[in-house]
Q: What sequence folds into this?
């Protein structure tokens, strides 16, 4: 008789059965009219939410907002996984701005946020706190992307939590933007996969997976370290790190729980997986880095509980290269396993990220499909729930019956295509959304809306019609205040790097006669790899006429910034759109190896990407026309090079040798002492008239003292100072 899998001890399990949060709470879309709180529970329950002025008292509370039964949406996704989205509307006059507010969630009039084992609060406050932006106040943002469990480096989300801990209300960030790769579904550490599989099965049920012999997830040939072949051959995926690729919905859900909830780590042991064929050194490195990830989980949970958070997927939420071009999409969607994995990944994204961004999208979208000769209307929420329901209700192994086939065909048909309503050709909505900041923030879905071309076209031109539609209520604000665009990957990248990507793709095309694989190997999916992408985006900006466009991105694992004006000669040459772009390096995924640690920096062959990776950048003097609303931005990052070796004349010489002082980057000044500034100029880009500016960069060290706990020294930065 097998022992039942346990992810926590009996005491915690008993508390979960009483309503202690399994994951969350997370503050989601928030305005002066309503606040949404996301939470995952182990049980079915009736939740009630309230918002009130922040206080140290647990009892003397006067509600400013209170939920009704109809304000609480629930989605049962497994036998022990219930996702709730609680809308808390204001009672009268709107919620106050620029003032600390608190919230509470209750079951049967008892708070579920006051458990002794949980720490959701800062300082003296009895409940989690947040702040709403005032109309005429600067916008203060936290932003970042690319957080991998076994990624190199400290976890920068812990440093974000540190920032909130010391912030007073005058400096408290209004929102957190997570701009892609919140999990890495394709690149999972060996020490974690088996636990994820068991946790997923415990919460969801035993899932049937098409395209794999037997369909079960517990078969030996898809255990840790053995999945690369199956996802390549049977799913058509192109990830080169897919030995532990997530497959079932349960595994995807478990990965999100491991990313945000300390409870599911209680029984996890970060040790080597017992398979002699997996390199021991690789496993040790993964274990060491995963322990850093684990150490930050309590802080990550507290951060998400105390700041309105908006999230958009990139490729790793599903798989590396997800929908990179039409060739990839066509190959994968021909395979039942490929369709199912994408469907599972996108269903998990909806449940853990997408639902709270713009809740009015769900369950209102209506799907039209044909089943048994009858026409039916079903919401996305309903499609996901009905598909998953089979795995925790089936008692007789009847998952191949017609009812299963119909439900799963619908599930795979809609979710694997990546759409919310209907095919893109019908001009229906996609996953793009607007966050209620000032200036407004437009999050672009650049994965499911791509054009049908071999060279990646990041957004099909028809999608801009929908984008303009969702922006229509804010037309005046855009012209007066500008717009923030979250574009995931940089709109305007580093010339040397993007040129190299293009060259690699061209070599594959000319020499190997294989452009698609050239694109995959070079990760060639920038906005200008297919110039139509850039042209369409700039035409869109011309049409909406923003006072300024501030682009925020991540993805590339190095930080930089550029600024200038966009002019389209074939439109109105005299017309310009002031443009500023900020690209954050990774939250926890230093991609490149350290060239300096433990040895003298080489003077030849120095990689530019290694030099600019993991830097905290901010504009010293912004020369563009500033919007009426000021913006403050915190980009958290950590260095991956030994500071005692980094600031040397050898580095300057290496840079000069590597880039030969071309028009890519010009080193203006280089000061010796650590923590001093390195000034860089971004040179002219004539195609979009990116003009020369000064960018100030700083490198911050990690303290390693007795009481430092390896925390990052961080600082706020002003982007548009009025």
A:
């Amino acid at each position: 008789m097998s022992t039942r899998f346990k992810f926590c001890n009996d005491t915690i399990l008993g508390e979960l059965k009483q309503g202690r949060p399994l994951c969350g709470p997370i503050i989601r879309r928030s305005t002066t009219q309503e606040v949404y709180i996301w939470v995952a529970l182990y049980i079915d329950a009736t939740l009630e939410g309230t918002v009130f002025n922040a206080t140290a008292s647990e009892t003397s509370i006067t509600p400013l907002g209170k939920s009704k039964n109809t304000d609480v949406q629930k989605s049962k996704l497994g036998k022990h996984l219930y996702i709730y989205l609680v809308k808390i509307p204001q009672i009268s006059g709107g919620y106050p701005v620029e003032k600390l507010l608190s919230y509470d969630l209750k079951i049967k009039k008892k708070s579920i946020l006051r458990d002794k084992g949980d720490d959701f609060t800062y300082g003296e406050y009895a409940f989690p706190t947040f702040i709403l932006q005032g109309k005429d106040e600067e916008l203060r943002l936290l932003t970042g992307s690319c957080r991998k469990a076994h990624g190199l480096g400290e976890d920068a989300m812990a440093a974000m939590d540190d920032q909130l801990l010391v912030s007073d209300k005058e400096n408290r960030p209004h929102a957190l933007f997570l701009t892609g790769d919140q999990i890495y579904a394709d690149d999972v550490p060996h020490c974690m996969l088996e636990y994820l599989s068991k946790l997923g099965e415990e919460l969801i049920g035993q899932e049937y997976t098409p395209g794999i012999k037997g369909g079960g997830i517990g078969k030996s040939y898809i255990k840790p370290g053995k999945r690369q072949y199956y996802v390549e051959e049977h799913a058509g995926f192109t990830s080169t790190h897919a030995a532990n690729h997530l497959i079932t919905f349960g595994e995807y859900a478990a990965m999100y729980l491991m990313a945000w909830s300390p409870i599911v780590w209680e029984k996890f042991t970060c040790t080597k997986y017992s398979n002699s064929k997996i390199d021991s050194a690789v496993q040790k490195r993964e274990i060491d880095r995963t322990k850093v990830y684990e150490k930050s989980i309590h802080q990550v949970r507290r951060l998400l509980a105390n700041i309105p958070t908006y999230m958009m997927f990139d490729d790793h939420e599903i798989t590396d290269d997800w929908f990179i071009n039409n060739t990839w999409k066509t190959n994968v969607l021909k395979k039942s396993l490929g369709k199912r994995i994408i469907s599972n990944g996108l269903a998990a994204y909806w449940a853990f990220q997408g639902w709270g961004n713009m809740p009015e999208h769900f369950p209102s979208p209506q799907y039209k499909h044909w089943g048994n000769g009858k026409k039916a209307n079903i919401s996305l929420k309903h499609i996901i729930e009905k598909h998953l329901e089979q795995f925790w209700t089936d008692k007789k192994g009847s998952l191949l019956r017609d009812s299963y086939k119909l439900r799963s065909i619908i599930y795979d048909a809609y979710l694997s295509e990546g759409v919310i309503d209907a095919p893109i050709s019908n001009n229906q909505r996609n996953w793009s959304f607007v966050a209620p900041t000032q200036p407004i923030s437009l999050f672009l879905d650049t994965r499911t809306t791509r054009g049908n071309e071999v060279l990646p076209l990041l957004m099909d031109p028809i999608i801009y019609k929908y984008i303009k539609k969702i922006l229509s209520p804010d037309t005046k604000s855009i012209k007066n205040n500008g717009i923030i665009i979250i574009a995931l990957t940089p709109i305007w990248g580093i010339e040397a790097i993007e040129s190299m990507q293009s060259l690699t793709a061209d070599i594959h095309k000319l020499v190997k006669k294989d452009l698609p694989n050239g694109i995959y190997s070079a990760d060639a999916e920038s906005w200008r790899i297919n110039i139509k992408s850039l042209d369409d985006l700039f035409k869109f900006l011309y049409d909406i006429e923003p006072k300024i466009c501030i682009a925020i991105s991540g993805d590339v694992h190095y930080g930089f910034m550029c600024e200038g004006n966009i002019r389209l000669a074939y439109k109105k040459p005299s017309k310009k759109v002031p443009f500023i772009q900020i690209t954050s390096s990774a939250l926890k995924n230093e991609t490149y190896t350290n060239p300096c640690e433990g040895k003298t920096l080489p003077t030849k062959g120095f990689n530019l990407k290694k030099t600019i990776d993991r830097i905290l950048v901010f504009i010293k003097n912004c020369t563009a026309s500033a919007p009426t609303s000021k913006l403050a931005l915190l980009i958290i990052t950590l260095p991956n090079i030994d500071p005692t070796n980094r600031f040397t004349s050898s580095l300057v010489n290496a840079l000069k040798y590597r880039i030969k002082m071309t028009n890519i980057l010009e080193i203006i000044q280089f000061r010796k002492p650590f923590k001093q500034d390195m000034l860089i100029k971004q040179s002219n880009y004539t195609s979009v008239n990116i003009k020369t500016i000064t960018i100030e960069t700083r490198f911050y060290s990690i303290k390693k003292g007795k009481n430092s706990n390896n925390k990052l020294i961080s600082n706020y930065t002003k982007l548009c100072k009025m």
